[in-house]
Amino acid sequence: MTSQTAGAGDGALPPPATAAPRGLGRSLLPTDGLAKAQGTFPYAADLWAEGLLWAAVLRAPHPHARITSIDTSQAAAMPGVHAIVTHEDVPGSATHGRKIADRPAFARDLVRHYGEAVAAVAADHPDTARMAMAAIVVEYEVLEPVTDPEQAFEAEPIHPDGNLLRHIPLRFGDSEATGEIVVEGLYRIGRQDPSPVGAEAGLAVPRQDGGVEIHTSCTDPHSDRDQAAACLGLPAEQVKFVVTAVPGATGDREDLSFQLPLALLAIRTARPVKLAAARDESFLGHSHRHPTMLRYRHHADGEGRLVKVEAQILQDGGAYADASADALAAAVSFAVGPYVVPHAVIDGWAVRTNNPPSGHVRGEGAMQVCAAYEGQMDKLASRLGLDPVELRRRNVMSTGDLLPTGQSVTCPAPVAQLLDAVREYPLPPLPNESPAEQWLLPGGPAGAGDPGAVRRGVGHAVGMVHMLGAEGTDEVSTATVKVEGPVATVLCAAVETGQGFTTLARQIVQDVLGVDEVRVATVDTDQPPAGPGARGRHTWVSGGAVERAAKMVRTQLLQPLAAKFGMSTELLSISEGKITSYDGVLSTPVAEVLEGKELWATAQCRPHPTEPLDDSGQGDAFVSLAFAAVRAVVDVDVELGTVRVVELAVAQDVGRLLNPAIVRSRIEAGMTQGLGAALTEHLRVAKGVVRHPDLTSYAMPTSLDVPDIKIVKLLEERDVVAPFGAKSVSAVPVVVTPAAIASAVRAATGRPVNRLPIRPAAAVVTG
Q1: CA distances in angstroms from 602 to 218, 420, 527, 597, 607, listed in the order given
Q2: Which residues pair with 580 in a beta bridge?
Q3: Residue 583: what pLDDT?
Q4: Strand 343-351 with 53-59, pairing
Q5: How far apart are CA 201 and CA 218, in angstroms?
Q6: Where would a tag sit more exposed on the chain, N or C end, judged by fewer CB atoms within 10 A?
Q7: What is the 8-class DSSP label of residue 422?
Q8: C-alpha–C-alpha distance, residues 337 and 403, integer Å
Q9: DSSP notation for 571-607
Q10: At what angle are helices 259-269 and 221-232 packed, to 10 degrees?
Q11: CB within 8 A of 591, min separation 6: which ones?
Q12: C-alpha span between 361 and 252 (Å, rounded)
């Protein structure tokens, strides 16, 4: 994979600095980057403790079944087995959940999805634990699973709370309005797995007070602690979560799954217990992107201007509520895309099924609808005989326009500029016909049938995501900044998931206080909560808290000097490691002033409140929005249906470039995840059973699959309500890239391409 940046003066990435970078706007490198690249950085799977036991979790082999008996006697009698726990051993609440406590710690009477936890074993060796797990005898009465979301409405409830998780009926403008031109489409989006680089792992250590300390790579430790404490029947102060390094997270790792068995086993045995999930267990144990079916009808006038959008959105939430309400709100609210639509009738449903649970995955809700509404825009352009980019250009929104929720877009919304940037960027050259370059054809020299059957297509897409939580979520984070001599320390429970928060925190403190050495403390639940690491939260909320705390320390630092020289602190500035006065009389290194001093301050950041959507889908539900435009160039073998993405060009509004190198890497990573959703990634489920949960059958893009990624424009138009003016950068490329690739395949084949990932049959042209 290669990456290039163009568009100097428009937020393009600057050339590498010759001096060591520091402060905001520079490409400061992560302090742990080298250790992670060399494989020496410790993760949860590397943890060890004296007297360690190993855990294994028994998972149900049926998507829907009644448990009639559980016999653990044979397993318990095996040498080396120290404890076995089932639902009968859960001392507190039988269920847990981030917002709705509907998921059992262990399946009690019913199994509701394939791979649901039934029991757990602790033994003195991992092989012994697995053998004991296999020796547990569970008798099941197999039930007919509900696996079709459309049938869930009429099927017998699979959960006491019913099969309907949420329904949002959005009505905007005149529901009776019609347009001169009408196009319809049915779209299906598959089940994408987050597939973190490192599978789940953890270590639970019993405490002397009867509690437990859990070391794991979670992303919202305080929520996990509160849920775990409720199930364990313990006060929250007796349960501590310590966050180890997170080996990959894309809005996921918010599931409380293996942590509860670990905690129960550690308390039962009074010994440390460790679990390192195999890849198949990882696939079964965490949530996935919501499979979604979307029916659309677009109305437009003769000039191609949108009049009304009608849509029905059906999301498969799996067996438990998880994040389905949030994902549905995003899907319904963004169902028309970043376009001006005066009238909208949108109905969205999220339902329970006996399929694997769905949850937070980067761009949830927004990615599925983007693929659909951009498919509709291509269809409308074809119907009108218009250039697809020109059609989009006539309808894009800008600051001040309304979402179909009635909320005004107050943040920068430069959609037209982004679309123009990718359209005007030079197209890549056609491949040569020499044998040496035949590997560039779809499938390579062995897979390509006839080079004459290869057609090139160019497609465009625009999309949007929301930042932070929505619908009244109380977004707040707390941070403490301590300075002892020349060293500053940041304490904040914001988990570093790869988004670069620890690097950002260092940059903020360097900027505000002028110190070089900034350390970020390990995250645990003894610190005040900072919330989950998704949707740009930590850049905005946690970064804002760090900045406020650092400014309070700055005031403490400058006040004695200001008083000594008879001036206010506002007349003193810190830059390049020096404190200077407005008149130049004072100029002294920060390190000298800090010598022998200990300063600290704690601050919070809380963005402006939002509100839930009402019964008509109306309300100011979002804090801010981020936008991107992507152009995809593909080569398609129309005889075999194989697709090769030649190039992806992206233009994105980033608000402000806080760390250009990290922004670039996050955009590239997001587009790669979007590439997988477009072409290869689909967790196969047949009648509720996950087929081949491994990385051989689940085809993720490799470095050979990723095309040239051209970062054409990074538009810096600051969001005035954000602490630094910056926007979330990693989710919106995931949202827009699949739609752009599908558009390019349509252009190459003339086929509708209404399903993701794109199947070879959808790209075959006959006749």
Answers
A1: 24, 44, 11, 17, 17
A2: 573, 587
A3: 79
A4: unpaired
A5: 10
A6: C
A7: H
A8: 9
A9: GEEEETTEEEETTSS-EEEHHHHHTT-EEEEEEEE-P
A10: 50
A11: 486, 515, 577
A12: 5
Looking at residue 536, the DSSP 8-state letter turns out to be T
Q: Are 667 and 734 in contact (CB under 8 A)?
A: no
User: In 10 A of CB 446, how many CB atoms?
Assistant: 7
Residue 566 falls in which region: left (phi positive, over 0), alpha (psi -120 to 50) or beta: left
Helix (H) or strand (E) holding 4: strand 3-5
Amino acid at 626: A
Q: Distance between CA 504 and CA 342 in Å, rounded?
A: 40
Containing 38, the helix (H) or strand (E) segment is helix 33-38
476 neighbors 222 (Cβ within 8 angstroms): no
Contacts of 405 (CB under 8 A, 6+ apart): 170, 172, 333, 613, 617, 618, 619, 620, 621
Tens digits of residue pLDDT in 296-334: 999 999 999 999 999 999 999 999 998 999 999 999 999
Could you tell me if residue 557 is left (phi over 0), alpha (psi between -120 and 50 degrees) or otherwise beta? alpha
CA–CA separation, 222 and 744 (whole Å) = 44
Q: How many CB atoms lie within 10 A of CB 168?
A: 23
| Longest alpha-carbon distance in the chain | 88
Instruction: Say how far apart CA 55 and CA 262 lie, in whole Å.
Output: 7
What radius of gyration do the chain's Cα atoms show? 27
CB 674 within 8 A of CB 366: no
Contact in structure between 66 and 110 (CB atoms under 8 Å) = yes
Which whole-number Å values give the CA distances from 498 to 10, 249, 479, 567, 663, in the listed order? 26, 7, 19, 43, 11
Ranges of H-type helices in 124-232: 126-135, 221-232
Q: How far is residue 710 from each of residues 109, 427, 646, 653, 664, measured CA to CA in Å?
A: 53, 11, 11, 15, 10
Opening angle at CA 411, ends 406 and 413, nearest 5: 90
Whole-angstrom distance, CA of residue 471 vs CA of residue 557: 40
Q: Tally Cβ neighbours within 10 Å of residue 125.
A: 11
Which tokens go with 314? Answer: 């059906």
Spatial distance between the Cα atoms of 465 and 90, rounded to a whole number of angstroms? 39
Q: How far apart are alpha carbons 278 and 490 in whole angstroms?
A: 34
Whether omega for the bond prior to residue 757 falls within 30 degrees of 0, making it cis, is yes
CA distances from 444 to 296, 451, 453, 458, 705 (A): 37, 10, 13, 20, 11
Looking at residue 19, its pLDDT comes to: 46
pLDDT of residue 439: 67
User: How high is the pLDDT of residue 251?
Assistant: 62
Two tokens, residue 653: 């509004």
CB 569 within 8 A of CB 501: no
pLDDT at 565: 80
Instruction: Enumerate residue ranges in the chain where pLDDT < 50.
Output: 1-19
Structure confidence at residue 153 (pLDDT): 97
pLDDT of 591 = 84
Q: How far apart are CA 688 and CA 114, in angstroms?
A: 7
745 phi and psi, to 5 degrees?
Answer: -65, -40
Strand partners, 690: 685
- CB contact set of 220 (below 8 Å; sequence gap of 6+): 98, 254, 495, 531, 532, 533
Cα 126 to Cα 47, 82, 115, distances in angstroms: 14, 12, 19
The pLDDT of residue 4 is 46
- CA distances from residue 46 to 68, 263, 279, 524 in whole angstroms, order as listed: 38, 18, 16, 18
SS3 10: coil
What are the Cα distances from residue 200, in Å, to 20, 48, 291, 320, 533?
A: 36, 16, 23, 20, 17
- Cα angle for residues 416, 9, 724 (degrees, 5° grid): 80
